[in-house]
């Protein structure tokens, strides 16, 4: 596997030159949006805009408040699959829209704050979004050949603006389908309130969901280029950095036994994405192999996982050619004792995973002898090197079930363990699959780690 290169995402420039249109307090923003033309900018005043209708923003029209702590918009209307700011276009088209400097409150009824279908070149920043039903921000790209691209979301706070039930959860930032050049950075997502969404304005069949959901979720959709028959998705050339995600310990999903995931890539392929300099308190899940096996599927670096009680695994890497380096995984600070498997692949898929690199990370455990990486698929060309493991006597690799048979060579080298360790074991001691060949060199044991 080649060395990883840091990449930079460049967004298309905005060319917003036309009228500034002030929307007085007490007026419907939607009325002014309907009268605006491409290049116009709606200026919102300091104060509260009450009882607002949903708005369709045409391409080239932007909205700017007087400041995220000065302009408040309240909306309390139910409409399926509709954002307060509704952006729609054809696949591959550009919106050249900027939404900034305001607070949006969905009052636990309204579907989403911003829903963008197909329009590229969108910026959302310096904004607070809270109390929406499905998502704070939704992104939809339905074309595998003309992906939704050039989206930047930054300087934001999102609070409890998604939902979950006992079989699934959505994301406070939710994206579907085919996406390229997505940047989300310098923001906080708090998803720690499991109160039920049961306002009478919500249709009966949509009530009873818990309100927090996941922080960010990317997932598949129907491919418009295949007659909407295939359900698939892919995200490429994107960065997610300087984010803080605050989850509650468990969700409604799976009867309350599943952690509220911070960041999930669900059944969507990844290629050349970076997740860096983020603060997690729950799980990051990358759970689909890329059929092309690109040189780099995902680069996970310099993140901090300060794990809360109830979270037993923090990193799912069910894909080849992923680099996980310079992260800290900390169960010690909150004295978490239920470490089921610190990381690995455990979604029942059987594809051989190759080219995973786990290096220069720090693992801190509280009175545990955990399995560090658990797999129910076979692995090959797997390298675990120069990591530091504090607390417990872990098993580095644990294989689970007959689907993990056929693993190739794995390398465990140059690591420092506070106590003893076991290179390879089984999750269930009755398993009879053969162990992979292990290169186990230059690992150290010391009681002097601080």
TrEMBL record:
Signal peptide (from-to): 1-18
Superkingdom of origin organism: Bacteria
Keywords: Signal
Protein's name in the database: Uncharacterized protein
């Amino acid at each position: 596997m080649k060395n990883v290169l840091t990449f930079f995402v460049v967004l298309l420039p905005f060319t917003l030159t036309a009228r500034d249109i002030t929307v007085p307090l007490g007026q419907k923003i939607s009325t002014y949006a309907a009268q605006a033309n491409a290049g116009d900018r709606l200026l919102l005043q300091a104060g509260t805009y009450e009882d607002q209708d949903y708005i369709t923003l045409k391409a080239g029209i932007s909205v700017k408040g007087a400041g995220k702590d000065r302009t408040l918009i309240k909306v309390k209307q139910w409409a399926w699959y509709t954002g307060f700011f509704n952006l729609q276009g054809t696949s591959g088209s550009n919106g050249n829209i900027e939404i900034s400097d305001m607070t949006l409150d969905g009052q636990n009824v309204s579907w989403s704050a911003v829903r963008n279908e197909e329009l590229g070149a969108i910026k959302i920043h310096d904004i607070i979004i809270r109390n929406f039903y499905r998502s704070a921000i939704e992104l939809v790209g339905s074309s595998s050949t003309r992906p939704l691209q050039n989206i930047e979301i930054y300087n934001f706070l999102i609070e409890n603006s998604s939902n979950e039930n006992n079989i699934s959860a959505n994301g406070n930032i939710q994206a579907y389908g085919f996406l390229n050049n997505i940047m989300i950075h310098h923001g906080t997502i708090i998803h720690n309130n499991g109160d039920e969404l049961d306002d009478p304005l919500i249709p009966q069949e949509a009530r009873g969901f818990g309100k927090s959901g996941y922080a960010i979720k990317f997932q598949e959709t129907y491919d418009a280029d295949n007659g909407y028959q295939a359900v698939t998705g892919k995200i490429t050339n994107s960065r997610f950095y300087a984010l803080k995600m605050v989850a509650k310990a468990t969700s409604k999903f799976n009867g309350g036994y599943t952690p509220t995931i911070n960041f999930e890539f669900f059944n969507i392929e990844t290629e050349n994405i970076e997740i860096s300099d983020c603060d997690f308190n729950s799980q990051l899940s990358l759970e689909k192999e890329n059929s092309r096996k690109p040189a780099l599927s995902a680069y996970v670096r310099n993140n901090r996982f300060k794990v809360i009680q109830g979270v037993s695994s923090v990193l799912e890497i069910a894909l080849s050619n992923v680099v996980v380096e310079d992260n800290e995984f900390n169960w010690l600070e909150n004295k978490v004792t239920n470490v089921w498997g610190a990381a690995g692949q455990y979604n029942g898929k059987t594809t051989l995973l190759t080219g995973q690199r786990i290096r220069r990370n720090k693992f801190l455990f509280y009175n545990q002898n955990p399995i560090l990486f658990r797999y129910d698929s076979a692995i090959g060309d797997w390298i675990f090197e120069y990591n530091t493991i504090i607390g417990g006597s872990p098993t580095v690799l644990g294989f689970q079930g007959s689907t993990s048979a056929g693993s190739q060579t794995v390398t465990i080298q140059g690591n420092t363990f506070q106590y003893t360790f076991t290179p390879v074991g089984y999750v269930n001691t009755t398993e009879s699959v053969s162990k992979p060949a292990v290169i186990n060199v230059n690992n150290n044991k010391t009681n002097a780690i601080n």
